[in-house]
Structures are given as C-alpha cells and as structure tokens.
Fold this sequence. Notes:
Elements: E1 5-8, E2 11-15, E3 21-25, E4 28-33, H1 41-52, E5 74-82, E6 94-103, E7 116-118, H2 121-126, E8 150-154, E9 159-164
GO cellular component, one term: membrane
Organism: Allacma fusca
GO molecular function, one term: extracellular ligand-gated monoatomic ion channel activity
Amino acid sequence: MRGDKVWSERHTFSLGDDDNLNISCAGTSLNVLTRRWAATVQDLVILDELLKKGYDRRATPTNHYNKSTPTSVYCELYMRSMSSPNPLTMDYKVDLYLIQRWKDERLKHHDLKQPLDLNDPNLVKAIWKPEVYFPNAKEADFQFVTVPNVLVRIHPDGEILYMLR
C-alpha cells in the first residue's frame, strides 16, 4: 500500500515509503505514526516478562517508585471533523484523534531493539493509561468497530505512545 492514498470523508490517508502515516484534510497535514514495527516472538516474551514482574496497571508510573511527582502526560488532539452547531442547544459533534505520550520506567527493557506496537486489546488493557475526560462534554465515546480503534507503542526506553479515535 506504500504510496497509495485512501480517501475517506474528505481526508487523505497515505503510507509513504518511509512507513510514515500521513493524514491530511483541507490542506493541513499531520504525520501521526513515525514507524510501524511488527513484534517478534522475543519482543512478546520480553513484554510478558515485564507485565508479570509486579506490574500494577492501577499504579501510576511515578507512584510505583514512591516518587511524589506526578506522571507527565503530553496530549495532542487532531480534529478530523466537526458538525455544524445546533442553533437551539448549541450542541455539536467532533471526530478526533487523542494522542498521548508518557514515560513508564516499568516497561523499559534493554533487550527491546525497536518500538513495539500493541494491537491486542488484552495487552492494551494490561498497562497503565491516563484517565482523560472532557469536563463540558455532554456525551463522549471511542470508536469501536470490531476491536477498539487504539494504538499503543512501547519504546525501548519506556516511552509510551497511546493513540485513540
């Protein structure tokens, strides 16, 4: 599919020769993924090791080490579409990507040679993720087709990329 473009609702998605996924809409483009890596059996064994070694998904990455500092989570929003506001209620709908990054030292491993993409919903559930809410939202949900529309990427240094739609 390299170099091919897929059209959806006035948006262009393309996978370039460098494995970058680019999203563009109305002249604005966003490079969402920097690289796609297939997990090897060894990577999955390492991940199982890390998760079985006392990993508690209820504990934040910094609280796990009894640090008093909060976990820094960097957030980005990419709005795919926005409906016209209802003039009576001033309600509107948006379709967006929520992209979050943070460091979880518990998932750092020197034998991981490249970022590891998780697409198994059970593995995604097994790691700590920040709780996100939109205070003024009347209603919100995540896209769910046959499986949740999420990407979790674990880097060898413990940096986590979490993207959902």
